Amino acid sequence: MRKTQITIDVELDENHIPESITWNAQDGGVEKEETKATMISVWDDKAMEALRIDLWTKEMPVDQMKMFIHQILVSLGSTYQRATGEEDVAQWMEEIAEEFAVKSAIK
Questions:
Q1: Are residues 32 and 71 in the same domain?
Q2: pLDDT tens sequence across 94-103
Q3: Tally of domains in the chain
Q4: Mind listing the pLDDT tens digit for each residue in 50-93?
Q5: Same domain, 17 and 51
Q6: In terms of domains, do 47 and 75 share one?
Q7: Which range of residues forms the domain containing residue 35?
Q8: What distance, in Å, lies between the first and last C-alpha atoms of the chain?
């Protein structure tokens, strides 16, 4: 069996607000790549619920956060389609993402 790691380093200010976020992915050749936001979800099989870590720095502009959320919504539709094969539901999720884009004034 082979193992690899993806790590996220977060520097916090005195109020525990992220100042900077960097990430590393051994297999992807990524080392200390800066980012302004990250969202991680993991499935807790015992509790049957999604656990999340949502972090963003003080410098993350609101307009970029809106685009980030939109792109996550679009990708959720693709992931759902690949995982379930339910193309109709995936299409509906993409429509929701587009409605979000309009309502958040990014499109």
A1: no
A2: 999 999 999 9
A3: 2
A4: 999 999 999 999 999 999 999 999 999 999 999 999 999 999 99
A5: yes
A6: no
A7: 1-57
A8: 46
Residue 4's SS3 state is coil
> Could you tell me if 48 and 55 are in contact, meaning their C-beta atoms sit under 8 angstroms apart?
no
Beta pairing partners, 8: 23
Task: Give the type of residue at 11.
Answer: E
Amino acid at 17: I
Residue 44 in tokens? 């807790």
> Is the same domain home to 53 and 66?
no
Task: Report the length, in residues, of the chain.
Answer: 107
Dist CA 92 CA 90 (whole Å):
5
Q: Can you tell me the distance from the alpha carbon of 46 to that of 27, in angstroms, rounded to the nearest whole number?
A: 30
Number of other residues whose CB lies within 10 A of the CB of residue 77? 19
